[in-house]
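Figure 3 (text version): C-alpha cells given as input.
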C-alpha cells in the first residue's frame, strides 16, 4: 500500500494556492520565485500523468491537495480516485475518496486472453479468476468482460 506523508497545514495551502473546483486548476496566489508567478497555473505533470504541486521543496499530488482544501480533511492513508481515469483532471466532481482496492477497480483492463484461435473473457473477483467463456473475436470477449465488470462493481467500473 502506498504511504502518504501528511499534507502541510490547510491554512498554509490556502495562502499559497487558489483551487478552482470547476476546472480543477490550481493557481499561485503570490509570486514566490521566478518559476511561480502570481496568477500562473501552479504545478507540473509527473511522468505518470498526475499534477504535482510544490511547496517549500516538497512535492504533493494536486488531487490530494484538492480533497484537503474542499473537505478540510487530509486523506492520509486513503487514495483519491479520478472517476474518468484522467489523472490530470482534478475537478472536484471527478474526485472521490477510495480504498486501494476501489481505486484498482476503476483501472482499465482488456479482460481477455487468447488461446489458439479463441479469445477467453476472464475477470478476477476477490483474488479468484473466473472464466466468462470463449469467443471468436477480441471485441466479443471484451464486451462480455465489460458487462460483467459493470454488473459486479457498479459506479466504480469504468464501463458504467
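Below: residues designed for each position.
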Amino acid at each position: 500500500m502506498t504511504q502518504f506523508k501528511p499534507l502541510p497545514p490547510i491554512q498554509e495551502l490556502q495562502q499559497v494556492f487558489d483551487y478552482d473546483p470547476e476546472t480543477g486548476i490550481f493557481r499561485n496566489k503570490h509570486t514566490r520565485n521566478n518559476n511561480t508567478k502570481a496568477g500562473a497555473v501552479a504545478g507540473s505533470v509527473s511522468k505518470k500523468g498526475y499534477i504535482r504541486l510544490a511547496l517549500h521543496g516538497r512535492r504533493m499530488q494536486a488531487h490530494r491537495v484538492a480533497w484537503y482544501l474542499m473537505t478540510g480533511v487530509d486523506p492520509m492513508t486513503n487514495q483519491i480516485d479520478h472517476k474518468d481515469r484522467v489523472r490530470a483532471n482534478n475537478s472536484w466532481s471527478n474526485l472521490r475518496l477510495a480504498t486501494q482496492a476501489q481505486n484498482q477497480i476503476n483501472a482499465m483492463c482488456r479482460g481477455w486472453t487468447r488461446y489458439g484461435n479463441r479469445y477467453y473473457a476472464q475477470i478476477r473477483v476477490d483474488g479468484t479468476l473466473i472464466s466468462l467463456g470463449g469467443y471468436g473475436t477480441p471485441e466479443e470477449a471484451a464486451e462480455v468482460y465489460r458487462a460483467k465488470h459493470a454488473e459486479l462493481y457498479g459506479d466504480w467500473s469504468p464501463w458504467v
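The longest helix spans residues 138-153.
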